[in-house]
Design brief:
Elements: H1 6-33, H2 37-41, H3 49-62, H4 67-84, E1 89-95, E2 105-106, H5 107-117, E3 121-126, H6 133-144, E4 148-153, H7 156-159, E5 179-182, E6 199-202, E7 206-210, H8 216-221, E8 224-230, H9 234-247, E9 252-253
Parallel strand pairs: 1-2, 3-4, 4-5
Antiparallel strand pairs: 1-8, 3-6, 5-9, 6-7, 7-8
Helix pairs in contact: 1-3, 1-4, 5-6
Length: about 260
Amino acid sequence: MSAVHPRFEAAAARAVERIGPAHLRTLADRIAEGGPALGIVHAVPVPDFPEVAHRVLTEQRSVRMPNQEAAFYLRGVAAGYERHRAGTTVESVWTGPATHAVPVRSTAQVLVDVAGEAVNELVLMTYSAMPYEPLLGALAGAVERGVSVMVVVETLHGAGSALGGAEPAHAFATVDGIELWHWPVGERAEQGAKMHAKLAVADHRLLLVSSANLTQSGVTRNIEAGLLVRGGTAPRRAAEHVARLRARGVLRRLR
């Protein structure tokens, strides 16, 4: 393979940061197949993929790189990224306006990815929640794979006048098999205390902590910030803490 043009190299590096190695391999496969560009950019129905795929294809065409060569390089980037993150890694996650000079992953994309990577257990916590179809699809897929999915939500009663509309739990009503939990008002030591945590933990090994609620605005429109931790003790400790709160009855099933 000839030397890779710096522009395509940069596009590949930004791509793996934004969509992750699994989706980058899918992009490589579609490019290798040589299908139409429209089909390639919509090959994976998750946030960020169409934009990232379009940019990679644009750079590929501009440097006249053959499909097989481009696919080979993208697979290599995906493999290298996985080797690099095999230890404990921490990366920033954002909602809101993007800056192409600083490639970061979006909250919406990371939430879908965390749900997609779960094998045994997935724990979500959110203050407010509204239906967000890409996440609901990822949660349904996790349930179908046999993953135990638990979501801890605030309630209108617990939030007082701070939340209105439908109960946050209703955001997950279309996905069968999800366990819904809450922090009963009677278990709160002080009046006005809120269930304000926003996180996602998959299999004690992947932890997203964010300011974003599980709402359309929280994961796609607001400016929100978070950290994705892969490996190490933080994901395990977070999952164990939630499990202990359940065991003590601080968190209870929402019926």
